[in-house]
Every structure is written in structure tokens, then in C-alpha cells.
From TrEMBL, chain A:
Family label: Belongs to the bacterial solute-binding protein 5 family.
Organism lineage: Bacteria, Pseudomonadati, Pseudomonadota, Alphaproteobacteria, Rhodobacterales
Subcellular localization: Periplasm
Source species of the chain: Allosediminivita pacifica
Keywords: Signal, Transport
Gene Ontology terms: biological process: peptide transport
One Pfam family named in its UniProt record: SBP_bac_5
Signal peptide: none
Protein name: Peptide/nickel transport system substrate-binding protein
Domain Solute-binding protein family: 76-421
Record GO terms (molecular function): peptide transmembrane transporter activity
UniProtKB/TrEMBL annotation, chain B:
Organism of origin: Allosediminivita pacifica
Predominant localisation class: membrane
Region (Disordered): 1-34
Keywords: Cell membrane, Membrane, Transmembrane, Transmembrane helix, Transport
Name listed for the protein in its UniProt record: Peptide/nickel transport system permease protein
GO BP annotations, alphabetical order: transmembrane transport
Any one cellular-component term (Gene Ontology): plasma membrane
From TrEMBL, chain C:
Gene Ontology CC terms: plasma membrane
Designated name of the protein: Peptide/nickel transport system permease protein
TM segment ranges: 98-121, 142-163, 169-188, 275-298
Gene Ontology annotations of biological process type: transmembrane transport
Pfam families, sorted: BPD_transp_1, BPD_transp_1_N
InterPro entries to which the protein is assigned, alphabetical: BPD_transp_1_N, MetI-like, MetI-like_sf
Recorded topology in the membrane: Multi-pass membrane protein
Transport listed as a keyword: yes
């Protein structure tokens, strides 16, 4: 401990020497400096997917609806009123006095343009796949009123509108000569969010300034500078020298060590991300393989010490789970069979299944190496000879697409959506290569839950699906994640229950 | 302990660095013909400090690797999540049960370091052998037959040197799947140029000598000539290169493992251990320092042994 | 001489293209860029969208020939990840790596030539042994580990230099040392050998008879002759510095070509990897060619071969 303290003190002096009033810097010029490891290369969230871009879009963009993180309900934002005419027709009324960053007034024509553009043939937007699943077209019915025509019944319309489509002024994706330019907003963004973009150096820095004509509650801090610092070591050094006020995705050990110094505060917030093992029950890798036997899959479930992994390796607000979804998600009932940690029982089940001498299994993983190793060690302890393949995400995904993976340690963040649909569809629909269950009936149940708007019916369908998954032990659910932040002690950064960092809600203490 | 590098061949900058000193080694070998009495070599060996230090280090590490199960106080794979990241015994919070502390999964660091010697040596010896097989085959063939074969081999050599090994390693690990054997093969396949350059030059030289011409005239096939006349004369320089390549292969494995494309967890590879410790090296520097020191010791041992062997096998080695 | 250079230049280009072909197929077999672009929580819809956007749904061979055709007209394509022309990307990162490579080479020269001279002055002396010790150690130390140790020692324990980054010249000191150290053994040994050889020659005996001794003799007379082969080796070493920049730049978070290469490989950004490997291979063969020419200029016999 003494050595640690000495090293830390040295680190602190080193860094504070460079910038004398380090911790005060952010507060003094009312600038929140944010470190992101992932490079920001495109400011238009309609064309991007990763979480860092969601964080950016929270600052710069407006949407028709917004999630209330407390109630997990989607409610008014740019839209003030909405009304289902029938199952596939939605009327929306817009707020008066909303302006874009370029000063123009937001009208129904802008909203219709944005949505129709995204589902159009030529848009190539990242948002297209999600939206075109249900949206046929949008019709302008008045200055501030619109009508959405759906292709089919879809329960998550408000979610998709709140999270996937950022509003743009009419003609945003057209060049001056009228030709199409789908990257028009990538660096010269016109949004209607609480901050506007002042300067943007792709992969380096985004400078934001409070938008004084913002229609909602204006943020407390005037300036936000987002710096791309891919190296976690650099981020730490910058945090301690005052070059950065906020960093996230901090490994637990680093967060705890640095959080103990006066230069940084460690915050641990909830996260909708869950970790789990997916087992090849369908026998894609080996038709007669051990994992096709339900007893073997149940043995795997009994073999894992989820409590210890959650407590020591993930930490913070992480909890062990036995559901194939985050318990905070709509429809994710915990009232399904569980397999408590019991290595003896696991061995007995393996014995019953005819694998008393164990078997060899490739286990793939791409993140949280200590957890992956802990899983492997637990499985080894009950006699399964695990060959851990810790690879880059792209490699894992590709091997899975080629059906070469018998078991993998996966995680899923549900895009911050507190609804079981956001995790169930992608993992159990028949066209998804993540679905190793081979269970067609299960797929039908999961998809049926997205074809009705009745919440009780949806709950019932999910309970049915989750019970099947648990009984058949298609997965071995592990734990929920927690999000570790390190922030300037002067900064008041409220944590959202859904785990999405909302930087516009920060203020100085 | 001096160097035997007073040789013009070594100043040829067209050859890669590693190959140059080996060219020197073979050319020393030329002076070594006819072979010096074994006794003389032994006398030189005893007086050679570097050779003694190098062979002692290598011997100790080989013994550590062989007797790892007896030496290691714990099972290197046994985790204890509640006892993770313990500091070494001399730090506050240290525990005599774990002399060098524990890693991020609560595994005994000392035991993992001891087992790490096995991995490094296995990969070093395996990869240096594979490299030898490829390099010597190509080198002798190119040197003996010359002509278009020689041009083709030269082209292969330049392409190999220009190709980033990391990329090749990543792709191969993905396609074949990682295991100790795959890493051995990959490192071996990436490290044959040194053997090639040396054996080609030496073969060209030996081929022009009288006794080879005599053998050819007597009706020996190329295979026979290579086996009986050429290879025996290459043995001592190949051994010297092998020792150097041992060190180079061990470093290559550690770099690959450090970047996450070599040895897979939970195997205790020193390079992988450094990568695992890197994240918290500001607070727990020993996690990075200790495996690095082990690597350093092993490689310096191999290099001193190589230097020493080169000096000893050549009578002019101590001028 | 001119023909010789032409021949070697053609060989260099052939090597660069062979390497690019090999890497293209290896990369495409090994990873699917769509997954890397889409990130952790990719849905099948996103992947399909990305494949269409980047033309990844087309056959491999036609993509390679498209790439080759582009290169021949000076167009290296567009990065999947950065969404801008690869040539622009490489051009913007190149100065940093060139600066790093040159400063690393300076470190090599500053350490190895004085050390080599010191060793050559009195072979078998303690100074010679010390120089040899330095060379043997530098050869045995893992480069990535040396980088981390330098950070722990000189950026954290005794905070003189920044931990990482590339904003000021101070940021380059540690990386240049680490990258430069790897070439010290080769250059030091060559300097020492060259000097010992020259010191035995007739004209040095003449100089000695005129009363020159020790360092003045070495630096004024011997070094001039011994240095030429060293210079041509330095050219080769400079070429290797570019490849060596991959690990060093990653450890010190320097935004140069090496780090770009590693990130592009890990992120399956094939067009970027393709151009970088092409550039690295060209630099490597060009530096070797330069060394060959210097050598040929020194030794007329080589020209024939």
C-alpha cells in the first residue's frame, strides 16, 4: 500500500506540476472536458451506431419523444401530443417555438422530411434498418401536425422515435445544387439539441457551446469539449492534471485506485448491459455435441459462481442474474427457474448426461478477460476442459456467423432500451446468428411479443419465452454490468438509472 | 569475452541486421576448417565468461521449466477472486502465502512466472527449429542450385522481410485457432531469414570447393552431396544461429501475446502477463516489472550462449 | 549503375504488390469489417446496411482488382472507419512517424557510435566489455516492456516526461529512446568492428607514426573510413523503424502510422491496412535499396551482381 501511495503521490505531483490549478480549470472557464476513447468521426447519429455517438447526440440533437429515465416511459419532447388513430396510424402534434441551431423554426415539414429521408432508398442511414421495419411514410397534415403510416403493428414505435431518429431541417441531406449528400450533416451538424457544435476535428476534438434558443431546460454548463483519448493511461493522466473532467468505461481496478485520490471521484452507475454465456444447443458446431444435451447446459449453469464474478470482477452496482435480460427491462420477469452455484450438482448432471469424464469445449470471449478466465476456471472445476479463445469482437462475430462457435461469453447493452424486446429479438429471432437455440417455437413467441401493443399480452409472451430459455438452459446468464466513471471532484454528474450518460444534466458543485 | 566480428562480410548492409553477425560467424567457421581439437575448444569455453553466464541462466531456466510442478507453491490456474491483486510479500498488505502477490483473478504470481518459463522455452525451441527447417532447406537449395531458384528464394526473402509479421500472425491465429502449437508454427514461419542468408552464402562457398567437385565427378546426386558434404560443414554455424533465434523467437512470442494475438489466457505467458498488468501499472508496477525481468533473463542467457558458442567454435574468436 | 537501380526498384515494387496481395486475402479471410464498423451491439439490419455501403457484399477478387486499379491511378480508397480517403489519413499521420523514426535514429547514433568508438579504442578493456554489455542487454530487452518501464520510471516515479501523447517534443523523448535502443546493438557492433579493422590498416600506422594517439586518431582518421558502412546500415535501420513504430506508438499513444496500422488491423479497416502495408513495404525496400546503392558506390564489385 505504501508503494502504491508513493507512486500515486508522484503521479499527482507530476501531473499537477504541469497545470498548476488543475482541478479548478473546468470550473473556471465553465467548460466540461469529456474524454472518449472511441474516436468521434461523424456527428450525425442518424448515420452512426456506437454508444459514444449516443452520448454526443444527447447533447446536440432533439427527437420527437424522450425517455424519462425514472419512469422508463417515453414522453413528450419535440412532439407534445400523440394519438393512435388505429393500430398502424399515429397522429403527432409538435411543440411551438423549437428552433434548429441554424436559427430556422422546426415545422412538420422538417420532421416528415427527416423520417421519409431515412427510410428512402438512397439514404444509406444507419437508422434505416430499424425504422423501415415499421414505418411506411410520414404525411404533413398541418404546420405542426403529422401523420405516421405504419407497415404493421409495432409496440416500440415511440422508443425508436426517441432513440434512433434525430430531427434535421428539410433538405439537410441535399447539397446546394440539389444533389443528394448523405454525409452533409457528418461534420456540419444542424440539430435542435441543448448544445450546438462550434468546432469539430474528426478523431480529435468536438467543441460544443450551449444553444441559447434551446426549447427545453437549458444546461448549467456553458461549454463542452469532447476529447478523443484512445489510451486509458492518457485519460488517467489528463484527468489528474485537469485536462479532462469526465471519463467513462473505466476498468474497476483503475477506477478504485484513482478514485481514492483527491484528484478524482469514482462514480459507479447502473448499466443495462448484461453478460451471459450462449450455448450451442442446436448443435450447429457438432450435431451430437455435449451442449445439445439439456443436462450438460444445466450443469454449465450450476458450475458458474456468478456472485463472486459480479462482486469482485465487475463491482459497483453489478448484480448476478439468472434471466436472459436485464431485470430492469420491461417484460424481464425474474420469476423463472434459476440454477444456483452448485459444482457438486453440476458434476452430477454431467455424469447423468454421460459426460462424467468431462469433455472439451471452445469458449469464445471478446471483453472482460478476467471474467472470461473466471468462467473458464469454474467450468474446468467441474471437469469441462475449456479452451478459451479470447479474440477481438470482429473475429468472434465472424466465427459465429460461420457457425463455428459452440459457446461464447456475450454481452448486450440493449441500446439503453429498458424493454426485453431490445435483447430478445436479436438473440432469438431465426435470422440472427446469435441464436444458437435452434428453437423455432421460441422464436415465434419472441417475435409475437413485438406484434402486439398490449402490455399485458407482451409480458405474458416474454414470460413464456424466458421460462423456455431458462428451462432449456439455452443461456447461462451471468451478471448485470455497472458503469464506472471517474470525474473531477468539482463536477456534479447525475447518474441515470438506464446507464446512459446525460452530460447536459451536469453542473459544477 | 570479445566479439569475432572482424570480418568484411559483416559490413554488407544489404543483409538484414540479424543475418550479418551470423555471416560473420560462418566466415569464422571457414578459418575453423580443418576442425580444431575438442580440447582446445573446451579450454576456450571454460575461460569464456559470457558463455558460462549464458549457459548457467539457460540451464537454470530449463530446470525451472521441467520441475515447475515441484517448484511452484500453488496451482498457476487456481483462482481465488476474493484474493485478487494482492501485493508482493514485502509490500504492505502482502501475504507470505503469495510471495509475489496475485494477479487479476487471484492466481499466485510466482507460480505463474515459474510456469511461464515452460511456455517461453517451448515456443523458443519449437519456433527456432521450424525456422531452421525452412531457412536451411531454402538456403542450401538456393546456394547449391543457384539460377532461377536462387532468384525465387531471394524474392521470397525480401517479401518476407517486408511483410508485417503481426498481421500474418493475427490472420493465421484466426484461421487456425490459437494454441501453443499454432504460435510455435507462426513464430517459426516468421523467423527463417537468418538461417537462409547464412546457409546460402556458406553453401555457395563450399560448393565451389574441390572436394564437392570431386564428389560430383564421382557420380553423387545433389541430395547426396548436400547431405554428406555440405550439411556437416554447416552444423556449427546453424547451432549458433539457433541459439540467437531462440532469444528472438521468445521475444516475438511475448510481443504477440502482449498484443493479444499470441498465447491465450489462462496460459501463463510472460508477454500476456505484462499486457494484463499494463492497465494498473501505475498502482501495481510489479505486475509489469516481474514478467519482463524473466523475459530479459531468458533472452540475455540465450544471446550470451550464442555469442559464446560463436567465439568458442572459432579459433580466431579471441583475437 | 543506373540499370542496377532500375532492377532493384522493379524488385521493390514487385515485393510491395506481392505483400499487398497476401495481406488483402489474409485480412479478408480473417475478419469481416462490417462487424468492426458496427460495434458491440450490432443488429443484422445494421450489418446489412454497412456491407451495402462499403461494397463488402461483392466477391473478393473483384474487390482486390478494384483496389489495385485504384492504386495504379493513385487512389487508395476510403477508410471504412474514418470515412475519409486513406491517402489523406496516411498523409496526416506520416509526419509524426517520420519525426519519431528520425529522432529514434538520432538516439541510436548518439548511443552506439560513441560506444562503438570507446570499445574499439582498446579491445578487451573494461570499456569494451561495458559496450558489449550494453549491446547484449539492448538486444535482450523486450521493446514493449522497455516502453512501459520507461513510463513507470520517468513519467510516474520521477516525473520528467509526459506519460503519453504527441503534443510537444518532450512527448517524443521516451518513445524515441525506446525505438532507438533496439538498433543500438547492430550499429554499435558494426562501428566497433569497422574501427578495429581500420585501425589495423597501413595509413593508420602512418598516422600513428606521426604522433596521433587515442581518441584524436580515432575520430579524425579512422572514423572517416569506418563510418561509411555504418551509414548504409543506418538507412536499413531507419526503414525498420517504421515497422517498429507499431508497438512504440501504441504504448505511448502517439498518433502516427504505426498506431494507425495496429488499430486498422484490429478494426479490420482493410483499405487503411492495405495502404499502410504497401507504404511500409515500400519504405523498407527503398531504404534497403539506398543501402545497396551506397554499398555499390563503395565497392565496385557489387555492381556486376
Amino acid at each position: 500500500m505504501l508503494r502504491t501511495t508513493v507512486a500515486l503521490t508522484a503521479l499527482c505531483t507530476a501531473l499537477s506540476g504541469a497545470l498548476p490549478d488543475a482541478a479548478e480549470a473546468g470550473r473556471q472557464d465553465d467548460t466540461l472536458r469529456v474524454a472518449l476513447a472511441e474516436e468521434i468521426l461523424n456527428l450525425d447519429y442518424n448515420y452512426t451506431t456506437k454508444r459514444e455517438y449516443i452520448i454526443m447526440a444527447e447533447l446536440t440533437d432533439a427527437t420527437l419523444f424522450e425517455l424519462d429515465p425514472e419512469t422508463q416511459e417515453f414522453g413528450a419532447a419535440v412532439a407534445t401530443d400523440w394519438n393512435w388513430v388505429d393500430d398502424t396510424t399515429l397522429d403527432v402534434t409538435l411543440r411551438e417555438g423549437v428552433t434548429f441551431h441554424d436559427g430556422s423554426e422546426l415545422t412538420a415539414a422538417d420532421v416528415a422530411y427527416t423520417y421519409n429521408w431515412i427510410v428512402s432508398e438512397e439514404s444509406e442511414a444507419q437508422a434505416k434498418g430499424t425504422i423501415e421495419r415499421w414505418l411506411d411514410n410520414v404525411e404533413v397534415t398541418g404546420d405542426l401536425s403529422l401523420r405516421f403510416h405504419l407497415k404493421s403493428v409495432y409496440p416500440l414505435v415511440l422508443r425508436d422515435m426517441a432513440q434512433r431518429v434525430k430531427l434535421r431541417p428539410e433538405g439537410a441531406y441535399e447539397a446546394d445544387d440539389g444533389s443528394i449528400d448523405e454525409s452533409a450533416m457528418a461534420s456540419d451538424l444542424i440539430g435542435a439539441g441543448p448544445y450546438k457544435v462550434v468546432a469539430f476535428e474528426p478523431g480529435q476534438e468536438v467543441v460544443l457551446e450551449r444553444f441559447e434558443d434551446y426549447w427545453g431546460e437549458r444546461p448549467a454548463i456553458e461549454n463542452v469539449v469532447v476529447r478523443n483519448l484512445p489510451d486509458i493511461g492518457t485519460q488517467q493522466a489528463e484527468l489528474m492534471s485537469g485536462g479532462v473532467d469526465w471519463m467513462f468505461k473505466v476498468p474497476l481496478d483503475v477506477a478504485e485506485s484513482l478514485g481514492n485520490t483527491p484528484q478524482a471521484t469514482h462514480l459507479s452507475g447502473p448499466d443495462l448491459r448484461v453478460g451471459f454465456l450462449v450455448l450451442d444447443a442446436a448443435g450447429y458446431t457438432d450435431e451430437e455435441g455435449p451442449l445439445t444435451n439439456v443436462k450438460v447446459r444445466q450443469a454449465v449453469n450450476h458450475a458458474l459462481n456468478r456472485e463472486e464474478m459480479s462482486k469482485f470482477l465487475i463491482g459497483g452496482s453489478s448484480e448476478p442474474i439468472h434471466t436472459p435480460c436485464h431485470p430492469a427491462q420491461f417484460g424481464c420477469t425474474e420469476d423463472i427457474p434459476a440454477y444456483p452455484y452448485d459444482p457438486e450438482k453440476a458434476r452430477a448432471l454431467l455424469d447423468e448426461a454421460g459426460y462424467g469424464d468431462g469433455f472439451r469445449m471452445d469458449l469464445w470471449a471478446y471483453r472482460d478477460k478476467p471474467a472470461a478466465e473466471a468462467i473458464a476456471a469454474d467450468l474446468e472445476a467441474v471437469g469441462i476442459d475449456v479452451n478459451l479463445r479470447y479474440v477481438k469482437l470482429a473475429s468472434l462475430n465472424q466465427a459465429r456467423a460461420q457457425q463455428e462457435i459452440p459457446a461464447y461469453f456475450g454481452t448486450w447493452g440493449s441500446g439503453g432500451t429498458a424493454d426485453t424486446a431490445a435483447i430478445a429479438r436479436v438473440h432469438f429471432s431465426s435470422e440472427s446468428d446469435r441464436n444458437l437455440s435452434g428453437d423455432g417455437e421460441l422464436t415465434e413467441t419472441v417475435l409475437a411479443a413485438e406484434k402486439t401493443a398490449d402490455p399485458e399480452e407482451r409480458k405474458r409472451l416474454y414470460e413464456e419465452a424466458l421460462t423456455t430459455i431458462a428451462e432449456q438452459a439455452y443461456w447461462a446468464p451471468l451478471f448485470s454490468y455497472s458503469q464506472n466513471y471517474l470525474v473531477n471532484p468539482e463536477l456534479d454528474f447525475p447518474l441515470s438509472p438506464d446507464g446512459l450518460p446525460r452530460l447536459d444534466e451536469s453542473s459544477w458543485k | 569475452m570479445t566479439m569475432t566480428d572482424a570480418d568484411p562480410a559483416q559490413t554488407d548492409p544489404t543483409q538484414p541486421h540479424a543475418a550479418r553477425s551470423a555471416v560473420a560467424a560462418t566466415d569464422d567457421r571457414r578459418e575453423a576448417l580443418p576442425p580444431t581439437p575438442r580440447r582446445l575448444a573446451l579450454t576456450r569455453a571454460y575461460g569464456h565468461g559470457g558463455l558460462l553466464i549464458g549457459s548457467t541462466i539457460i540451464l537454470l531456466l530449463i530446470l525451472t521449466a521441467i520441475f515447475a510442478p515441484l517448484l511452484a507453491p500453488h496451482d498457476p490456474f487456481a483462482q481465488s477472486l476474493s484474493a485478487r491483486m494482492l501485493p508482493p510479500v514485502w509490500s504492505e498488505g502482502g501475504n507470505a502465502e503469495y510471495l509475489l502477490g496475485t494477479d487479476q483473478n487471484g492466481r499466485d504470481y510466482l507460480s505463474r512466472l515459474i510456469y511461464g518459463a515452460r511456455i517461453s522455452l517451448m515456443i523458443g525451441l519449437g519456433a527456432a527449429s521450424i525456422g531452421m527447417l525452412i531457412g536451411v532447406t531454402l538456403g542450401v537449395t538456393a546456394g547449391y542450385f543457384g539460377g532461377w531458384i536462387d532468384h525465387a528464394v531471394s524474392f521470397l526473402l525480401t517479401a518476407q522481410l517486408a511483410l508485417p509479421g503481426l498481421l500474418l500472425a493475427m490472420a493465421l491465429v484466426f484461421i487456425i485457432g490459437p494454441s501453443v502449437w499454432v504460435v510455435i508454427c507462426i513464430v517459426g514461419v516468421l523467423h527463417w531469414t537468418y538461417y537462409l542468408v547464412v546457409t546460402r552464402a556458406a553453401t555457395q562457398r563450399i560448393r565451389s570447393l574441390d572436394f564437392v567437385a570431386a564428389a560430383q565427378a564421382a557420380g553423387s546426386t545433389p541430395g547426396q552431396v548436400i547431405r554428406h558434404e555440405i550439411l556437416p560443414n554447416l552444423v556449427s554455424s546453424i547451432i549458433v544461429i539457433f541459439t540467437f533465434e531462440l532469444g528472438i523467437a521468445i521475444l516475438a512470442e511475448s510481443s504477440l501475446s502482449f498484443l493479444g494475438v499470441g498465447i491465450q489466457p489462462p496460459m501463463p505467458s510472460w508477454g500476456l502477463m505484462i499486457a494484463e498488468g499494463k492497465q494498473s501499472m501505475f498502482y501495481r508496477p510489479w505486475l509489469v516489472v516481474l514478467p519482463g525481468l524473466c523475459l530479459f533473463a531468458l533472452v540475455i542467457g540465450a544471446n550470451l550462449l550464442g555469442d559464446g558458442l560463436r567465439d568458442v567454435t572459432s579459433p580466431d574468436g579471441r583475437n | 549503375m543506373f540499370r542496377y537501380i532500375l532492377q532493384r526498384g522493379a524488385l521493390a515494387l514487385a515485393v510491395a504488390f506481392t505483400v499487398s496481395l497476401a495481406t488483402f486475402f489474409l485480412l479478408n479471410v480473417a475478419t469481416d469489417p462490417a462487424y468492426a464498423i458496427a460495434g458491440e451491439d450490432a443488429t443484422p439490419e445494421m450489418l446489412a446496411q454497412i456491407r451495402e455501403t462499403h461494397g463488402l457484399d461483392r466477391p473478393l477478387a473483384s474487390r482486390y482488382f478494384d483496389w489495385l486499379g485504384g492504386v495504379l491511378t493513385g487512389d487508395f480508397g476510403e477508410s471504412y472507419y474514418w470515412n475519409k480517403p486513406v491517402a489523406e489519413l496516411v498523409a496526416s499521420r506520416a509526419p509524426t512517424t517520420i519525426a519519431l523514426a528520425l529522432s529514434a535514429l538520432s538516439v541510436t547514433i548518439l548511443i552506439s557510435i560513441p560506444l562503438g568508438a570507446l570499445a574499439a579504442l582498446k579491445p578487451n578493456s573494461w570499456a569494451d566489455r561495458f559496450a558489449l554489455g550494453v549491446a547484449v542487454s539492448a538486444q535482450a530487452v523486450p521493446n514493449f516492456w522497455l516502453g512501459l518501464i520507461m513510463i513507470i520510471l520517468f513519467a510516474v516515479t520521477v516525473p520528467i516526461f509526459p506519460v503519453s501523447g504527441d503534443d510537444t517534443w518532450l512527448h517524443f523523448v521516451l518513445p524515441a529512446f525506446v525505438l532507438g535502443a533496439s538498433s543500438v546493438p547492430a550499429v554499435m557492433r558494426l562501428t566497433r568492428t569497422g574501427l578495429i579493422e581500420v585501425m589495423d590498416s597501413d595509413y593508420i600506422r602512418t598516422a600513428r607514426s606521426k604522433g596521433f594517439r587515442g581518441m584524436p586518431l580515432l575520430t579524425r582518421h579512422a572514423m572517416r573510413n569506418a563510418i561509411l558502412p555504418v551509414v548504409s546500415v543506418l538507412a536499413v535501420q531507419l526503414g525498420q523503424k517504421f515497422g517498429g513504430s507499431v508497438i512504440t506508438e501504441s504504448i505511448f499513444a502517439i498518433n502516427g502510422l504505426g498506431r494507425l496500422a495496429l488499430e486498422s488491423i484490429l478494426g479490420s479497416d482493410i483499405p487503411t491496412v492495405q495502404m499502410l502495408i504497401f507504404v511500409f513495404a515500400l519504405v523498407f525496400v527503398a531504404m534497403n535499396l539506398l543501402a545497396d546503392i551506397m554499398n555499390a558506390a563503395l565497392d565496385p564489385r557489387i555492381r556486376i551482381g
